[in-house]
Design goal:
Layout lengths: L1 H4 L1 H8 L11 E4 L4 E4 L11 E11 L2 E11 L4 H14 L3 E7 L3 E10 L2 E11 L3 E10 L3 H14 L9
Antiparallel strand pairs: 1-2, 3-4, 4-8, 5-6, 6-7, 7-8
Length: 165
């Protein structure tokens, strides 16, 4: 389970910038005894979309996971929150908890995806030009067993200073 906790290491590495002699984007798994360089091109820093995913072991044909997505967005976190809540309604999700602060929003919600009851925990961190969305998803039936690992990983996300690179 410590491997999922290493999510912060890879997330920090992947948001560090372009590949160069001084800067690497390396994931290190001390549990499994390996490291691997993430495949990035020189323009990866500027691209949005899915950045990285981590998985827990498969249970009932589903692997709980954490994903990090970068979205171009220059609005307020309050406006982003409204967009999210509107989308949750469209998809029929039920928001259990919601917290908005200066530059981030956290959500815990449930819903059905491909016929399976799911439980989600998400954190959106705004930078002024982008929003990084870190989302954990688990089968509802396994949420209580997996929540501590998933929440700790999502909450470990932090942005790194990219100036001077």
């Amino acid at each position: 389970m410590r491997t999922i906790l290493m999510a912060g290491v890879l997330i920090l590495s992947l948001t560090a910038g372009t590949v160069s002699a001084e800067t690497t984007n390396t994931f290190i798994s001390r549990d499994h005894g390996f490291s691997i360089e993430a495949p990035l091109s020189p323009d990866s820093r500027n691209q949005g979309g899915n950045i990285v995913m981590f998985f827990l072991p498969v249970t009932e044909a589903f692997a709980a996971n954490i994903g990090v997505i970068k979205q171009g967005y220059d609005g307020s976190i309050e406006a982003y929150d409204k967009l999210n809540r509107d989308q949750y309604k469209i998809f029929g999700f039920t928001v259990l908890n919601r917290k908005i602060s200066k530059n981030e929003a956290k959500y815990e919600f449930i819903g059905t995806q491909q016929g399976k009851a799911m439980h989600y925990y998400a954190r959106a961190v705004a930078t002024g030009q982008n929003v990084y969305v870190v989302t954990a998803v688990s089968l509802e039936s396994y949420w209580q067993k997996q929540r501590v690992y998933l929440i700790k990983s999502v909450d470990s996300f932090s942005l790194q200073d990219q100036t001077g690179q």
